[in-house]
Amino acid sequence: MEQPADPRGRRLFGGSARALGDLAASPFRADRDRIVASPFFARLNGVTQVISPGGSGLLVHNRLTHSLKVAQVARAIAERLTADPAHRDLLDKLGGCDPDVVEAAALAHDLGHPPFGHLGERVLDRLARQRLGLSDGFEGNAQSYRIVTSTEIRGAATTGLDLTAAVRAAMLKYPWTRLDHPDPHPRHLDPPPRGAAAPPDDPESGSVKFGAYRTEVDDLRQAREPFAGRIPEWQQTPEASVMDTADDIAYAIHDVEDFYRVGVLQQGAVAAELMAWQRESGHFRSITDAALTAAGRRPGAAIERLRRQLHRKDAWIADDEAFAAAVEHVREELVDGLLALPFDGSIEAEQYVARFSARWSTRFVEAITVTPEPDVRSGHVLLAKAQWHEVQVLKFVHHRFVLARPDLALHQRGQARLLGALVEALWEWLLDPEEESRLPRRLHDLVELAEAELHPRTPDRIGRARGRAIVDFVAQLTDGQAVAMLDALSGRSGALWTDAFVL
């Protein structure tokens, strides 16, 4: 196949696989087809976004529906920006902003997310570093990048999804590795880019968020090569910035929608928090951090802590007037609007939710702008100040009134124990010499792939390869497959179960 003339279209493996679209006309649409046709995309239907569909009893977003909505928002942003000559000219200087590229990147951005949502990501990272000795640990974005570049196995070949450089670069929300690329590493900047800082309690572990493991760093460099001289090595491409912003928008809107549907988000609690801060904002702003901490769960204290956190982390945009206006707008939309009547499953209720989501989506998409010199904690594509604050307040609502709930914590602690037991059971299986020929074929292939990636002189090369293979294998399971596989390995299931083995 003839390669595209645009260097952004260079493929990693030569483009031998043909997708459904006309590759000559649009290699980026072919990328979208490859992603959607991948079994890794289909599995997202069984992966938790925030709350488990099985536990809620109602239809809530999973990783698949979330990815589809991020793609929808990302494409709308790209089309709006490229229709404006001033924005389009600036974007062209920065490397371009193709709607097909941002749509494909948005569809692929969560391919590597493991079972049980962000909880699964944290647990696998801890197990990978502390139990399996992998310094890169686990990170959902890096795992997505690994999937599209190396771990989709077709027979004997390991060719990834053969995506163009532009789409791979657009997937990189965090275009650095955990520890050592680029040099100097962005975690040493003051302040560091969003996600690049190391955990305060473990500064030697590297960045909290990162876009690629060491094994994919050459591919990261190749994907980013066309942007050299246009943007710093640690900065998102404009298309990655669009995708990242769309992800934030979808997360802020659709999670609130989900929590309302399942009856978790209650009008009284949200009203008490927002209105108490509005009534007593002068008092809250005047007290010390220690006094605010002592206020504990007093209504209004939590959102004051958010206001102060925004000033500490994002002084480049944090603004008290914009914050107060955002609290008021969210209060009107939620307390006086969406939450005023409980969700009852009626057609009228569904239409009301749909109008709420559409109204917020339009508001945010229309507030997108492009800047030639963004702050270190921002991308080139960003929300206007007012809408940026609104996103922060919407995200606060579901963090405060859903993620902090003890019943959710109880559920998630069980999921964390399950993942730990599953990793341990697979490790023991891999170490059993009598079982080597009976390993799941996918796991066997992943061990061979991981071993081939490591330098022959790597200390404990076989052990590290096995550890990475286990992480890859578990990350490719759905929630249900993880539960069923542990049941089978622990002897609790009497059924012959093979679902996860065919991945």
TrEMBL record:
Keywords: Hydrolase. One of its GO terms (molecular function) is dGTPase activity. Coiled coil: none annotated. Gene3D superfamilies: Hypothetical protein af1432. Residues 63-252 form the HD domain. Residues 178-191 have a biased composition (Basic and acidic residues). SMART domains: HDc. One of its GO terms (biological process) is dGTP catabolic process. PROSITE patterns: HD (PS51831). It comes from the Bacteria. Residues 177-208 are annotated as: Disordered. NCBIfam families: dGTP_triPase. This is dGTPase. It comes from Micromonospora narathiwatensis.
